[in-house]
């Protein structure tokens, strides 16, 4: 089962992983009010559908003023958004996520799936953030770092550190990355996910990590344990 980006980010935030400030809107007027609460910053207006490629289809707009956010929301809400993942019929947009813009220093990828060949989760990370991981795997597999997690033990701190150093981070940044990886994996494990990925996970110019886009798919047979998600 999939959920929207704004819902997924609420889960991630509850595990201590930073996400951009913002909120979800169902009307253009509500989008303006949320943008006003963000303040004098770049504002991102993002269509909320269960598919990727929203930006290429016109479902993501970057603006600089609350009134522009209202205008962008009016253009996006109600549109049928067609992307490479929706098929030719597209998806109707009913909500938009209004978020603060972020000054990006570096874009990374962080994901976790179940490796059925080894019967355990595997965390994958790459310096090629913002790019589809399938493309990286096909063209530059050496750029993907993998760390398998023993389900009986769980993710250990040294494994999270290995991921940070594998990404070429400075020692001062590895500790911050460790807390992100641990919170991210805990969300995956405790919510019984089949897949979770942050793409991109950005390092801001202020030296902080932030999940710009978070995608999660839940294992449907475990949903009876998570009524709040259903």
Topology:
Blueprint: H1 5-14, E1 22-25, H2 28-38, E2 43-47, E3 60-63, H3 66-76, E4 80-81, E5 91-92, E6 96-100, E7 104-115, E8 120-126, H4 133-139, E9 144-148, H5 157-166, H6 171-190, E10 193-204, E11 209-211, E12 214-218
Antiparallel strand pairs: 1-6, 2-3, 2-6, 4-5, 7-8, 7-10, 8-9, 10-11, 10-12
Helix pairs in contact: 2-3, 5-6
CATH superfamily of the largest domain: ATP-grasp fold, B domain
Q: Largest sheet at a glance?
A: 6 strands, antiparallel
Order of helices and strands: HEHEEHEEEEEHEHHEEE
Which spans have pLDDT < 50 for at least 5 consecutive residues? none
* Structural class by SSE content: alpha+beta
CATH topology of the largest domain: D-amino Acid Aminotransferase, Chain A, domain 1
Plain-language structure description:
- The protein has 230 residues and is α+β, with helices and mostly antiparallel strands.
- It is 30% helix and 29% strand.
- It is built from six helices and twelve strands.
- The longest helix is centred in the last third of the chain and has 20 residues.
- The relative contact order is 0.17.
Please provide a brief summary of the model.
By secondary structure, the chain is an alpha+beta fold. It is built from 6 helices and 12 strands.
Question: Any descriptors?
Answer:
230 residues; alpha+beta; Dna Ligase, domain 1; D-amino Acid Aminotransferase, Chain A, domain 1; six-stranded antiparallel β-sheet; 30% helix
């Amino acid at each position: 089962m999939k959920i929207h980006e704004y819902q997924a980010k609420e889960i991630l935030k509850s595990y201590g992983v930073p996400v951009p400030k913002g909120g979800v809107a169902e009307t253009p007027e509500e989008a303006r009010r949320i943008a006003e609460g963000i303040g004098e910053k770049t504002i991102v207006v993002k269509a909320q559908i269960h598919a990727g490629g929203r930006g290429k289809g016109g479902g993501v707009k970057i603006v600089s003023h609350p009134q522009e956010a209202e205008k962008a929301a009016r253009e996006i809400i109600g549109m049928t958004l067609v992307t490479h993942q929706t098929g030719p019929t597209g998806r109707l947009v009913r909500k938009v996520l209004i978020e603060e813009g972020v000054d990006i220093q570096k874009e990374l990828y962080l994901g976790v799936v179940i490796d059925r060949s080894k019967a355990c989760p595997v965390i994958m990370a790459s310096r090629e953030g913002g790019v589809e991981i399938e493309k990286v795997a096909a063209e530059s597999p050496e750029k993907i770092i993998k760390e398998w997690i023993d389900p009986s033990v769980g993710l250990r701190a040294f494994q999270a550190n290995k991921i940070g150093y594998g990404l070429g981070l400075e020692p001062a940044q590895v500790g911050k990355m460790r807390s992100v990886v641990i919170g991210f994996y805990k969300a995956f494990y405790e919510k019984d996910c089949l897949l979770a990925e942050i793409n991109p996970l950005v390092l801001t110019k202020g030296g902080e990590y932030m999940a710009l886009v978070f995608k999660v798919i839940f294992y449907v047979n475990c949903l009876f344990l998570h009524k709040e998600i259903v």
